[in-house]
Design brief:
Order of helices and strands of chain B: HHHHHHH
Radius of gyration of chain A: 21 Å
CATH superfamily of chain A: Glutaredoxin
CATH architecture of one domain in chain B: Orthogonal Bundle
Order of helices and strands of chain A: HEEEHEHEHEEH
CATH architecture of chain A: 3-Layer(aba) Sandwich
Oligomer: heterodimer
Largest sheet of chain A: 5 strands, mixed
Number of strands of chain A: 7
Helix content of chain B: 55-70%
CATH class of one domain in chain B: Mainly Alpha
CATH topology of chain A: Glutaredoxin
Structural class of chain B: mainly alpha
Distance between the termini of chain A: 59 Å
Shape of chain A: elongated
CATH superfamily of one domain in chain B: Cytochrome C biogenesis protein
Number of domains of chain A: 1
Strand order of the largest sheet of chain A: 5-4-3-6-7
Chain lengths: 180, 173
Amino acid sequence: MTRRLLFLLPIAVFAVVAGYFLWGLAPDRDPKDVPTVMVDKPTPTFDLAAVPGLGVPGLATGDLADGKVVMVNFFASWCVPCRAEHPYLTAFVEKTGVPLYGINHRDKPEDAAAWLTELGNPYQRIGADPGRAAVEWGVTGVPETFIIDGDGRIRYHHRGPLVPEVLERDVMPLLQALRG
Amino acid sequence: MTRLTVLFALLLALGSLVPAFAVEPGEMLDDPALERRARDLSAEIRCVVCQNESIDSSNAEIAHELRVLVRERLVAGDSDQQVLDYLVARYGDYVLLRPPMKPETYLLWFGPFVVLLLGGLGVFVYFRHLRAAPAMPAGLSTAEEARLARLLAEESAKDPAEDPGEEAGPKRP
């Protein structure tokens, strides 16, 4: 009986290896995905000055724990996916009324102003980040978006543009759950 | 012309010998010992957007930011481990090029040895079986012994009388 089982061993090994390869080749697995560890952590300590010429105040840690659910979005005028997500983000904010705070990452103030004049400004606050705030938030590039609950804890972190599919699938249900 | 080609080839060969470093002069610390620590530490930290490059050899902006940050923390008096912990708190173990030893990574660290052990065990069992197996089949049973004796007796009985010889046997095609 044990000998019979021994003959099954190569098949079992094959199944394990084949399963691993299948997982590796899965079309919805992105090997470039960088896992996030920021979810469920308190918002990082940061204090960013306003971007001159935008007419909205800057952003600091204290602005994020005022009992409201808010969205924080890292963006830059030089970032093409940011331009792609901008109309969806604007529409989402208008529809749900969730306050959207921006962090303008490694950008020239005049470029940021021109960009927002052209596309419209959905942000209630925008902080100018020369680079360090992104590290504090565990951000690897732009755009990246966070949802902060009323207690100032990070509840969601998304790398890449917020396309409608992601907004519907992840952001909307979470927002409804957090708002009760 | 040929001399120029040789010179060019030589330069290329020399260039490939020198490892590429992305550290900019402006980033370097004045204290050589501290700068040495920063370089060693940077080689252990992954540039999180460049697949498998350390921040020491990447030109990405985030690599520059992290290099400056590592130096700032060292100047502020952090130990090497404190700097790594600071980064792991923000980017996870992913930021470390050398995966840490912990229950989640036991399979990674010990998996190859487990496979080697299993293979060795398989080879051991195989050879032990080979040695234990009888080289010849077991002897004849009593029934077979009796039948063999009968056949031999028959053969020897008719042998001297009429030996058919080779010619009388069935012709091979």
